[in-house]
Design goal:
Elements lengths: L7 H17 L3 H14 L4 H13 L3 H14 L4 H14 L4 H21 L2 H17 L3 H14 L4 H13 L3 H14 L4 H13 L3 H14 L12 H13 L3 H4 L5 E6 L4 H4 L11 E4 L17 E6 H6 L4 H19 L4 H6 L4
Parallel strand pairs: 1-3
Antiparallel strand pairs: 2-3
Helix pairs in contact: 1-2, 1-3, 2-3, 3-4, 3-5, 4-5, 5-6, 5-7, 6-7, 7-8, 7-9, 8-9, 9-10, 9-11, 10-11, 11-12, 13-17
């Protein structure tokens, strides 16, 4: 006797269960197939849309995942799990894009209100973490720290929250607080390469070169993809690369730089970073003094000298090859020259000079 066909709702639930199990097993292709089969039965199913978006994210098909999360949020705008997935995609996978981070913060505002109202403490901690990460990536570290502190209170001992909090504290030059936070992370996750990396940077800023080398070497061992060995140039080679980058600027731009000091230092000093907003210790370069557009004959301040500094150790750590380092020196110099010519960070970003 033939088995009667399953009711559509029952089959839809079965496919959704299959998609969730496949995601949990690390099989995103199988999850995507099940989610798309579920959508064929229920095109407006928020759960099916969410499963499809999550599978596309796991497959690194980020543009499709972004569209899929939009559809899922349209179907279920107040679903906290959908909101968490969408925000995570924007912050973690698309976090190099300014607009994606701004969108993430808009969604975080809604998600935080909903999670507080519903008493969802675990999800609330997740949203606070993502909010802090987005603000940090936007360079708003002072604003990032309060949500990270609240997340740490809600989920004490969570290594991911502890890591982001430690990084924010380091960026704010609260070195002892950052050290304690990052060492607590290593107590939970001894192989957390990023914690070792930032502990190395803290030791370096404190002048403890042995500890710095030990932690930075450990980070490279644990995660060579994230932390390749720095490309090291002699001071003379680095100066030559800066000189060559300067020579490649158009003559009409070089004329404006006649009275601008251009120099190289190993790392930024604390006073270089203090400000509002504060600058990150892994800063590649810095422009200081009046911009060319601010020079006025009746303003004595505008006649103080302007200066551009490139930070050799940070630049060397940011690159994976000598050619990439030479290119990055030029990019950084052009970026700081852009500030001298009066361009804001937003204008530099729009011109591809961020």
């Amino acid at each position: 006797m033939a088995r009667p066909p399953q009711p559509p709702d029952e089959r839809l639930e079965q496919l959704l269960d299959q998609a969730e199990v496949a995601l949990g097993d690390g099989e995103p292709e199988r999850a995507l197939a099940a989610a798309e089969a579920a959508l064929a039965l229920g095109p407006k199913s928020a759960d099916a849309l969410h499963c499809r978006a999550a599978a596309l994210t796991a497959l690194s098909r980020t543009d499709e995942a972004h569209d899929a999360y939009r559809a899922a949020l349209k179907a279920a705008p107040d679903n906290l799990e959908v909101l968490r997935g969408a925000i995570d995609l924007l912050v973690v996978d698309l976090g190099e894009e300014h607009d994606a981070l701004e969108d993430a913060l808009d969604l975080c505002e809604r998600a935080l209100k909903l999670a507080r109202r519903r008493g969802e403490q675990e999800l609330l901690a997740d949203f606070l973490l993502l909010c802090g990460m987005a603000l940090g990536k936007l360079g708003q570290t002072r604003q990032a720290l309060p949500p990270l502190e609240e997340a740490a209170r809600l989920a004490p001992g969570d290594p991911e929250i502890g890591l982001e909090r430690g990084i924010a504290l380091f960026t704010l030059l609260r070195l002892e607080d950052a050290r304690q936070a990052l060492e607590a992370v290593l107590e939970q996750e001894p192989r957390e390469a990023w914690a070792h990396h930032y502990l190395g940077l803290i030791a370096e800023r404190r002048g403890d070169q042995d500890a710095a080398k030990r932690h930075l070497r450990r980070a490279r061992t644990l995660s060579p993809e994230d932390f390749p060995a720095p490309i090291e140039l002699s001071p003379q080679e680095f100066d030559r690369a800066v000189h060559d980058a300067l020579e490649q600027l158009p003559e009409r731009v070089r004329r404006y730089l006649t009275n601008v000091s251009i120099s190289v230092e190993e790392l930024p000093a604390d006073e270089d970073l203090a400000g509002d907003p504060p600058l990150a210790p892994d800063l590649l370069g810095l422009f200081s003094g009046p911009a060319y557009t601010e020079r006025k004959t009746d303003d004595p301040w505008s006649h103080f000298p302007s200066a551009i500094v490139l930070y050799q150790k940070n630049l060397q750590r940011s690159c994976r090859s000598r050619d990439e380092l030479i290119e990055q020196i030029g990019i950084t110099l052009v970026h700081e020259v852009g500030h001298f010519l009066g361009l804001s960070e937003e204008e530099l970003y729009d011109r591809g000079l961020d």
